[in-house]
């Protein structure tokens, strides 16, 4: 009995020691990693930043709901297409210059969006914002994974934490500044990105080795890898559900800028918490493919519930926050799976996967508005549930191909 207790005590100490080491490796990073992570937070703010001000932009610029939703579409289409070429760019000018180019473009186009006089201009400048976003995001992931201490898993958790924090604070900032003017969030992002630009330029040193130039066809050829292709296709359908939840629900909620900001702050906070704490705990116990298809089906159920509660503000808010909790797990596990799915350079794998994923999300906002007008307010949520279920079936049906990502 004593021997058993001693053994259990020793095992508990070893487990605690391992946990402390993992936590330490995540938190104790080079200054350059923190600089890039900070800039990631600001970059990801741009995704949810416009959520609280969508109704205000629609009213102020006399735009329809579908036209306003194109703020997401132009941003995501350009982001997705540009990501196919970011590894080619970064392999020629280096990671630091690519990051700074992306940040600089975001500063310029965010400021121009704030100066716009009609919705068409905002849509166009959001497209330019997406160009900078693509150059920054796909390069940032590869930079953090390459420079962080504690291995790829710790780096990915740090990256997803930045993503979650950015997505959480974006709507809150949008709500606070949007209460003053719909232009405020755009100017706020430009100012914060300028700070990120300075931090990266000062703290991130260029690599000692000259980057090996990548052929422009590398991201396209990468999609021939079965594991990467399966994950990209699953992410495409998953992102449709993601952006229906993010870009469509502000309209049926009917809240003011601050109300929407707080709602999506809760959504993003849930995403951040589960991406950093719950996802690593789950992947230490079960195969990634099992976690993916199970969580995708749970998200489909949540989207159906959101459709049923579309006329109930408390019910819809609950579904949005629960959705954020599930999205955090999916984002982290999908990213880890992509990094382990092939032997390709991380920048190439990241750009190929992200391109397909963002293009899936680009179609969701205007499609959701069109479906709502043609059928019913809850119909877009049911369509999103079907899309997410397809993603789950792709992972479940191709789990043998994804054995390497377990």
UniProtKB/TrEMBL annotation:
It holds the Pfam family MFS_1. The chain crosses the membrane at residues 32-50, 70-91, 98-115, 127-149, 156-180, 186-206, 227-248, 260-279, 291-309, 315-334, 355-375, 381-402. It comes from the Bacteria. SUPFAM superfamilies: MFS general substrate transporter (SSF103473). The keyword Magnesium does not apply. InterPro entries: MFS (IPR011701), MFS_dom (IPR020846), MFS_trans_sf (IPR036259), Tet-R_TetA/multi-R_MdtG-like (IPR001958), YfmO-like (IPR053200). Residues 32-403 form the Major facilitator superfamily (MFS) profile domain. It comes from Nocardiopsis alba. It is a multi-pass membrane protein. Its main location: membrane. The keyword Transmembrane helix applies. This is MFS transporter. It is found in: Cell membrane. Keywords: Membrane, Transmembrane, Transmembrane helix.
């Amino acid at each position: 009995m004593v021997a058993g207790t001693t053994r259990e005590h020793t095992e508990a100490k070893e487990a605690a020691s391992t946990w402390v080491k993992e936590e330490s490796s995540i938190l104790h990073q080079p200054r350059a990693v923190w600089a890039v992570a900070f800039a990631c937070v600001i970059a990801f703010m741009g995704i949810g930043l416009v959520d609280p001000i969508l109704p205000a932009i629609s009213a102020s610029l006399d735009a329809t709901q579908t036209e306003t939703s194109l703020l997401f579409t132009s941003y995501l289409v350009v982001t997705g297409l540009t990501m196919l070429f970011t590894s080619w760019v970064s392999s020629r000018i280096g990671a630091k210059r690519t990051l700074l180019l992306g940040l600089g473009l975001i500063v310029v186009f965010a400021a121009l969006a704030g100066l716009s006089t009609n919705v068409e201009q905002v849509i166009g400048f959001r497209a330019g914002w997406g160009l900078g976003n693509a150059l920054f995001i796909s390069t940032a992931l590869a930079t953090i994974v390459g420079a962080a201490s504690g291995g790829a898993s710790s780096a990915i958790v740090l990256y997803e934490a930045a993503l979650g924090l950015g997505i959480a604070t974006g709507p809150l900032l949008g709500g606070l500044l949007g209460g003053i003017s719909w232009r405020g969030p755009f100017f706020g992002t430009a100012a914060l990105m300028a700070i990120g630009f300075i931090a990266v330029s000062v703290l991130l040193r260029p690599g000692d080795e000259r980057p090996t130039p990548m052929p422009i066809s590398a991201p396209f050829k990468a999609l021939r890898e079965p594991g990467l292709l399966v994950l990209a296709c699953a992410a495409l359908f998953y992102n449709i559900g993601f952006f229906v939840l993010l870009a469509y629900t502000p309209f049926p909620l009917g809240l003011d800028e601050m109300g929407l900001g707080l709602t999506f702050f809760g959504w993003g906070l849930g995403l951040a918490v589960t991406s950093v704490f719950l996802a690593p705990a789950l992947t230490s116990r079960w195969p990634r493919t099992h976690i993916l298809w199970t969580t995708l089906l749970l998200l489909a159920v949540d989207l159906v519930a959101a459709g049923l509660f579309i006329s109930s503000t408390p019910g819809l808010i609950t579904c949005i926050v629960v959705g954020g909790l599930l999205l955090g797990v999916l984002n982290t596990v999908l990213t880890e799976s992509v990094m382990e799915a092939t032997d390709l350079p991380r920048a190439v794998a990241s750009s190929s996967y992200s391109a397909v994923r963002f293009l899936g999300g680009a179609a969701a906002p205007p499609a959701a508005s069109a479906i709502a007008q043609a059928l019913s307010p809850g119909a877009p949520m049911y369509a999103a549930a079907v899309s997410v279920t397809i993603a789950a079936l792709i992972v479940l049906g191709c789990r043998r191909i994804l054995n390497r990502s377990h």
